[in-house]
């Protein structure tokens, strides 16, 4: 779904994601962001099958995550995704995890467009640039 902050994906913290401190373990947030990125792309017509068919692939090369509050097991959150910088071969996505209007964490992730066969970097495809400019 879309809101003023861009694409928003509902999520619920799962039992196996919670650590002994009673909050979602930090590593799971990257998984959440990956799911939200997939939802964002699919919402704009680039689902997994289309990415493969079009020969599009990318990989995470940098992540920055800032936590403000923990999310506990069973809590419902929203993960907002909005595009950031678009470079020649890389692009940024910004994420915000919100619980009832409270922002629990934010992230900036840098992805590099790569050839699916592993032969190296490629320019960010036009189809993806169009989505990132929305």
The largest beta-sheet arranges its strands as: 1-2-4-5-6-3
Which bin fits the share of residues in helices?
Answer: 10-25%
Count up the helices: 3
Return Rg in Å.
15 Å
Strand fraction band?
Answer: 35-45%
Structural class: alpha+beta
Q: List unreliable stretches of 5+ residues.
A: none
Number of strands: 6
Shape: elongated
Order of helices and strands: EEHHEEEEH
Overall mean confidence score, pLDDT:
92
Largest sheet: 6 strands, antiparallel
Through-space gap between termini: 14 Å
Question: Notable features of this structure?
Answer:
single chain, 134 residues, alpha+beta, six-stranded antiparallel β-sheet, 6 strands
Summarize the structure.
22% of the residues lie in helices and 40% in strands. A 6-stranded antiparallel β-sheet has the order 1-2-4-5-6-3. The mean pLDDT is 92.
Describe what this molecule looks like in 3D.
The chain starts with a strand and ends with a helix. It has a six-stranded antiparallel β-sheet. Helices cover 22% and strands 40% of the residues. The chain is α+β, with helices and mostly antiparallel strands and 134 residues long. The model has no long low-confidence stretch (mean pLDDT 92). The chain has helices at residues 28-43, 48-54, 126-132, and strands spanning 2-3, 6-12, 57-67, 76-86, 90-99, 102-114.
Topology:
Elements: E1 2-3, E2 6-12, H1 28-43, H2 48-54, E3 57-67, E4 76-86, E5 90-99, E6 102-114, H3 126-132
Antiparallel strand pairs: 1-2, 2-4, 3-6, 4-5, 5-6
